[in-house]
Amino acid sequence: MTWQLASLLVLGAALTAGFTWYERTHPTSRMLALVATLAALAAIGRVAFAALPNVKPTTDIVLLSGFALGGAPGFVVGAVAALASNLVFGQGPWTPWQMVAWGLCGLIGAGLGRATGRRLGRVPLALACGGAGLAFGAIMDASVWVTYGGQPTPGQYLAISATSLPFNLAHAIGNVVFCLAFGPALVRALLRFRARMEVRWADAPVAGAPAAPIAALALALLLAGSLLAPQRAHAAAAGAAPAARYLAGAQNADGGWGAAPRAASNATQTSWTVIGLGAAGYDALSVRRSGHSPAALLRRYAARSRATTDLERTALALAAAGIPGSTGGLAGRLVRAQRADGSFDGLVNLTSFGALALRAVGVPARSRRVQRATSWLARRQNRDGGFNFAGRGGPSGADDTAAAIEALAAGGHRSGRAVARAASWLAGHQNPDGGYGLQSPAASNAQSTAFAVQGLVAAGRSPDRRRRRGARSPVAYLRSLQARNGSVRYSRTSTQTPVWVTAEALAALARHPLPIRIVRR
Fold first, then answer.
1. Fold of 232-509
2. The pLDDT of residue 160
3. Are 406 and 458 in contact (CB under 8 A)?
4. pLDDT at residue number 237
């Protein structure tokens, strides 16, 4: 077997493994679309800068994709970008080498993101992109050495590397410059997608499904009614009790929740369900299936959480369940995740939930940490009174504005000017159907409306009032999406009823001003 054939077989095995790994993650349609878009952007970046030898943003885009989205998506972005761009530059024996090399850049980004909790400054991120450029060059030097060098020797490789060194340095320097210019902005956008849009949807049971699972679910819902006793009178508000019973009936045998009844439990769905139940005044740990409550899973999630979004969500869930925030060292990692300027990852939405999470783990409202977070938030308020997830200047959105109100109120600033202006923005941007969209204008959905309700309550405004002439109240909009079994659809046009949507709607239907109610045991 020749060196050339052996190398192609190894490359083929690597590419097969990478694409199989990605396929086995069962990416959502939104993730597929995002990966395709990033691969196209990386390919176009290579074509656009073709006049400058080896200076291109492709490596940066691939590495940052892996950094924000994970190893499998990062690998596919790199491999597809190489294949697609060579439709312009020409295919050849170098193509599989480029596919593997850029795929590895995606994996490097994923490893870096995992090691740092996806928190890395502009300069270190740029240096990492520069290092990835040198690694890419070293692999491509190896491709020339193996493919065209006859019987390869170390001396040949050194000679090839010396010849290509100026081009590899140009690649690395270009990567550093590109990342310094746009790297943090791209990472923020991708992390926003990961936190807000990456949801695994599952169809609700349809007519004609086997009777046994339906009967089991009905029995579970019946039993849930006896397990759930609201700890606060307002939890009995219209729509709240049916939603709580639905969530209790959707619990899995391990004590957790998945995207739909009988779907595998995961940290996101379990945490949000516990938060929703806790906000509505229910004791989530009294909800059991096969003798298991969510307590063990929450402790496991606390020990494993590293990314800022995971730390914040788990901290809120622990507080809602009455489990100490110090469990698994989570409180310490949460405190360390806060930057010197008071923000969490430099993002409005993460800083809002960061302030709430700090309160959840027992940090006082008047503490320096909480006040630094709320001061940072107040400085990012847009001129129209709303908030954008990335900071001042971007279009205001209901989710981010409501979360900022909750955080400011939790920090003792409920009567402040920033809360009043943000609440006025919410009041003025309600849709005619009574709901709220992610931004304005945008179609209404249950999640944005639930956040808006909680923001209005946190600001001291009634969510049962109509905010614009001819519109119903946002609470009435939520109830219009609720099915007889208590589940809540994402929107009018959607037939999906994800567990997390019902959990978030539950807290809003109970008119609770914050995502949690700390349970005292």
1. Glycosyltransferase (1.50.10)
2. 86
3. yes
4. 61
The secondary structure of residue 347, as a DSSP letter, is B
SS3 label, residue 315: helix
For range 222-237, the mean pLDDT: 41
Give the pair of three-digit tokens for residue 210: 């086997």
Q: Letter for the amino acid at 310?
A: D
Q: Give pLDDT tens digits for 10-49.
A: 656 766 776 776 666 666 666 777 888 888 888 888 888 8
Distance CA 288, CA 164 (A): 64
CA-CA-CA-CA dihedral for 298, 196, 275, 385, to nearest 10: 140
Taking the C-alpha atoms of residue 146 and residue 295, their distance in angstroms, rounded to an integer, is 56
**Is CATH 3.40.1110.10 the right assignment for the domain spanning 3-196?**
no
* pLDDT, tens digit (0-9, with 9 covering 90-100), for 206-221: 333 333 333 333 323 3
Average pLDDT over residues 102-129: 88
Q: Which residue type sits at 46?
A: R
CA distance 128 to 112: 9
Token code pair at residue 347: 């993002």
Please, what's the b/e burial string for 102-141 (b: 16 or more CB within 10 A of its CB; e: otherwise)? bbbbbbbbbebbeebbbbbeeeebbbbbbbbbebbbeebb
What is the 3-class SS of 430-441, one letter each residue? CCCCCCECCECC
Instruction: Give the three-state DSSP class for 89.
Output: helix
Report the alpha-carbon distance of residue 278 to residue 256 in Å, rounded. Answer: 15
Structure tokens at 40: 């196209």
CA-closest candidate to residue 507, choices 295, 232, 299, 296: 232
Residue 45 makes CB contacts below 8 A (sequence gap 6+) with 56, 57, 58, 61
DSSP code of 292? B
Contacts of 406 (CB under 8 A, 6+ apart): 352, 356, 454, 455, 458, 513, 514, 515
Q: Calculate the average pLDDT of the chain.
A: 82
Neighbours of 157 (CB within 10 A): 17
The more confidently predicted of residues 465 and 87 is 87
Sequence-separated (6 or more) residues with CB below 8 Å from residue 226: none
Task: Using the predicted structure, report yes or no on whether residue 248 has a pLDDT greater than 70.
Answer: yes
Nearest 5°: CA angle at 431, between 428 and 434? 105
Q: What's the length of the chain?
A: 521
Residue 165: partners with Cβ closer than 8 Å, 6 or more residues away: none
**Per-domain residue ranges of the chain:** 3-196, 232-509
Q: Note whether 408 and 416 are within 8 A (CB).
A: yes
The span from the CA of 405 to the CA of 383, in Å, is 15
Amino acid at 231: Q
According to DSSP, the residues that pair with 482 across neighbouring strands are: 488
Phi and psi at residue 300, to the nearest 5°:
-65, -45
DSSP per-residue string spanning 435-487: -B-SBSS---BHHHHHHHHHHHHHTT--TTS-SSTT---HHHHHHHTB-TTS-
